[in-house]
Specification:
Helix content is 36%, strand content 19%. The protein is an alpha/beta fold and 273 residues long. It has an eight-stranded mixed β-sheet with strand order 1-2-4-3-5-6-7-8, sandwiched between helices. Helix 8 links the parallel strand 7 and strand 8.
């Protein structure tokens, strides 16, 4: 399916790089720390039945990040303002890892009722006392693979096999991730409590073998929502859309059917804050 790539200005000093494809219900697809390539297949799948909008987070893949954009809350507000500026409603937001965290932060701030559904794929973003988030920055590439993948041997990439350009891109992405999410590490201390005010249905998809954030962490995350549920995907780790795409896509397709708005002027005001 043809994909249009464009840049759109959200603030005078912030433009978003976007890929768009398909028609129908708008779906905003937010990538994790690994960059937009980690959700490319998911975007292509959703574009078959929906209007898939896939931005590159500012600072990833060489894009510009203004100095003031220093937290996931800043990113969430930027995407909400983008949706408002486009006049988009009945929006499904799908986020992977920190993209899922960003989606959750958007939902608690969505006073205009633009978002009508959430799919969070192994998100970080909350603090669960009994299930700490693995310190990604303390791991070497092999360690990341062991904790993040069900089949580490298949998905681990030896840094020695990468080109100088690829290494530089990864280093830039990691540097941006540190700015946005390293302190406090990979969570917003207030987010877990705020999720109970989010009344749009939230589907949390979780790789059964994820050891960056465990399925038990996911269960606590799902329970915190006003209307959330956890769906665990076997033989998958932190990125089930890559390890088990068919099972991941099937779960999302079912959720799309459940949450589509088919009549009326659109969703009403968002939850009280």
């Amino acid at each position: 399916m043809p994909t249009d790539k464009s840049a759109t200005t959200v603030y005078p000093d912030l433009s978003l790089t976007l890929a768009e494809a398909g028609t129908g219900r708008p779906c905003l697809i937010l990538h994790g720390g690994g960059g937009p390539a980690t959700v490319a297949g998911l975007s292509s799948h959703l574009a078959r039945t929906a209007h898939a909008i896939t931005p590159v987070h500012p600072g990833w893949d060489g894009t510009h990040r203004p100095d003031w954009l220093t937290g996931i809350d800043d990113l969430a507000l930027a995407y909400l303002h983008y949706l408002q500026g486009r006049g988009l409603r009945d929006v499904l937001v799908v986020g992977s890892s920190i993209g899922g965290w960003t989606a959750a932060e958007m939902a608690v701030r969505d006073t205009a009722g633009l978002i009508s559904g959430l799919v969070l794929i192994d998100p970080v973003g909350v603090h669960v006392e009994t299930e700490p988030i693995r310190d990604f920055f303390a791991l070497d590439p092999r360690g990341v693979a062991e904790y993040a993948w069900h089949d580490a041997a298949r998905f681990h990439r030896d840094p020695a096999s990468l080109s100088a350009g690829q290494v530089a891109l990864q280093q830039g992405n990691t540097a941006t991730l540190r700015v946005l999410a390293a302190d406090p590490y990979m969570h917003d201390p207030k987010l877990l409590r705020r999720l109970g005010r989010v009344d749009v249905p939230a589907l949390l998809l979780w790789g059964a073998s994820d050891r960056i954030v465990t399925p038990a962490y996911g269960a606590a995350y799902a329970e915190a929502f006003g209307s959330g549920r956890l769906h665990v995907i076997p033989e998958a780790g932190h990125l089930p859309q890559l390890e088990q795409p068919e099972a991941t896509f099937a779960a999302i397709d079912g959720y799309l059917r459940e949450t589509s708005v088919t009549s009326g002027p659109g969703p009403g005001p968002g939850p009280a804050r």
